[in-house]
Amino acid sequence: GLVSLQGTSEINSRLDSGAIGNAGNIEITTGNLELTEGATIVASTLGQGDAGNIDITTIGNLELTEGAAIVASTLGQGDGGDVTIDATGDVSIDSDFGGIYSTVGIKQVETDPNVPNVVGDAGDIKIKANSLSLTNGARLVTKTAGEGNAGNVDIDVTDQVLLDGKGDDSNIATAILTQVEEENEDNNTIAGQGDAGDINITTGDLILTSAEEGQSFGPQIYTENRGGVGDAGNITINASGLVSLQGTSEINSRLSSEASGNAGDINITTGNLELAEGTAIVASTFGQRNGGDGT
Predict the structure, then answer these.
(1) Which of the 8 DSSP states describes residue 51?
(2) Contact 166, 208 (CB under 8 A)
(3) Whether the Cβ atoms of residue 10 and residue 42 lie closer than 8 Å to each other
(4) In whole angstroms, what is the distance from residue 64 CA to residue 62 CA?
């Protein structure tokens, strides 16, 4: 069978602001799942309690296009849910801002005594499939912009993980990332207080490439503390076949100059490693404390 969501269609489990308790889980089992034109599946908490988990099982493929997204978030006081995808076939995500997001939420920078701090850990993103394809600005993201840790990203695919290109409209890179957010008054965010999650990838081949010749930046896999208090995560890649970075693609664990914490380690085990000119694998810190190791 097929589950298809289009346009403003949404599947939502939410704990509203002021509510106390836990939101319910979202469980989908189908042959194929398609989300397009901005359709979403969302599990969130704005109150005092945990968000639900999102569990998706497909006998066939899962496809997100044209900005469609799966989101688990905490914007109140409680933990975000996990997003777990188990696909016998392929998982493909394409286009600007399309992707899977697990976040500890956004809070006004100016303190309001009637608005509690955003407190809680983001959930993990877990994907098991035959292959995973992220193209044209698609992203897998765990992030903390509150008091709590970002989740881990765990990917286990049989064939290939592919990251390609950047967004056509947004100009953002296709990416897999975990992040501790910085304070930003323009975006009404506070600096995160917690650790970025780890990224763990087990696959046959891992390929990062840029479709456009001369592209100034390419796909990225990274963990980062942008300006909060906490450590960047570790990156562990086990590829039985090939790890290939082309164009200006990058694997990175980093701390910005305003951050306080440690960069994570990068560990890659593979049969073959190909790094084209202009690509990079880096564990770095410009902040207060230590950079990580790369092996």
Answers:
(1) P
(2) no
(3) yes
(4) 7
CA gap 36, 267 in Å, rounded:
35
Note whether 255 and 263 are within 8 A (CB): yes
Residue range 165-201, pLDDT digits in tens: 887 766 788 999 998 776 655 555 556 677 889 999 9
Long-range contacts formed by 112-119: CB under 8 A, 24+ apart: 116/76, 116/77, 117/77, 117/146, 117/147, 118/74, 118/75, 118/76, 118/77, 118/145, 118/146, 118/147, 118/148, 119/77, 119/78, 119/146, 119/147, 119/148
Amino acid 26 reads I
From CA 160, how far away is CA 205, in angstroms rounded? 5
Residue type, 198: D
Are the beta carbons of 203 and 209 closer than 8 angstroms? no
Give the up-direction half-sphere exposure of residue 264: CA atoms within 13 A in the CB hemisphere: 29
| Helix, strand counts (H, E) of the chain | 0, 24
Cα separation, 272 vs 236, in Å, equals 16
pTM for this prediction: 0.90
